[in-house]
Amino acid sequence: MSAAPSAGSAIPKLGVGLPYFSALPSELYRSGLVDFVEMKPETICRKRPVGDTITLEIVAAQLERARNTCAALPLVVHGVELSMGSTHGWNDSYLQMLDTFQTKWPFVWHSEPLGFQTMQPEGAGPAVERVAGRVLEIQDRYGVPFLLENPAYCLPDAPTDPEVGDDIRLMRTITQNSGCFQLLDLHNIYCNAVHNKVDPLAAIDGMPLHAVAEIHVAGGSCNDGLWMDAHDGRVPEAVWELLEYALPRCPLAGGVVFEILDSHAERLGTGAIQQELLRVRKIWDRCKRG
What are the E-state strand segments in the chain? Predict the structure, then answer.
């Protein structure tokens, strides 16, 4: 199975993105600093037990509030609950919720982390086939580009399939086999460089840059000697340098998102978030409009 990423015209140049946060003032999304919104639909859902499963039900009032806050800004979806690589199957309740969400608030593209809640012991080879098959299914299901996000990891000696290799070759292989795009998370690249003593620029060069449709920048923090992908603060200077390096090398990139978790956005404050967005804008304009 082999496929090429969709035509470049499928990825519009959106610009500077920010996740939706109900705790932040709506004026931020109308200030001109934000060109598009990234949404985790599960954050406006309630979980309900139905038999032996848990369903996700969109809360109508929260959806209406989000739409009113974001006004006419383009929307992209970044889920975190699908579990694209799990052996036992992905999260059907999430997909059923997303089916409903798309009818109520259409999105430009959809992304997920390359995640594994459970993994069979044979190695990465079967995982590549499993993830690539699911990517093809989800692209057909929603009719918009689908992006996979490169992971952060703290286990450099974890077993890998010799025919696939490290996480970089894994991303390249899945992209090649499925035709999906990539969400290039530069803070994850930075975490891996810190933990595993790899060259972050070489890691970027090894990624399928021709297929990068979106880029994430974020902050983190140190916990028990590990630099965590915590999305809890401002972007480290080293990650800004990675954005300066990567963005000109990603011809299809449609936007750069400053990521921070809901629980930290209000603490960081609107002023600091605006400063991060302005810095993204400066780099975006120089690389994509220059």
Answer: 15-19, 36-39, 45-50, 53-58, 75-78, 110-113, 146-149, 181-185, 212-218, 221-223, 226-228, 255-259
Q: What is the pTM of this model?
A: 0.89
Worst-scoring range by mean pLDDT, 142-156, 171-185, 249-263?
Answer: 142-156
| Alpha-carbon gap, residue 265 to 21, rounded angstroms | 8
- Residue 75: CATH number of its domain: 3.20.20.150
**Total count of domains within the chain:** 1
Cα–Cα distance measured from residue 176 to residue 259, given in angstroms and rounded to the nearest whole number: 27
Q: Give a yes or no: residue 224 inside a domain.
A: yes
Report pLDDT digits (tens) over 30-55.
999 999 999 999 999 999 988 778 89
* Torsion angle of the four alpha carbons 287, 253, 172, 130, in this order, in degrees rounded to the nearest 10: 160
Q: 167 in a domain, yes or no?
A: yes
pLDDT of residue 119: 45
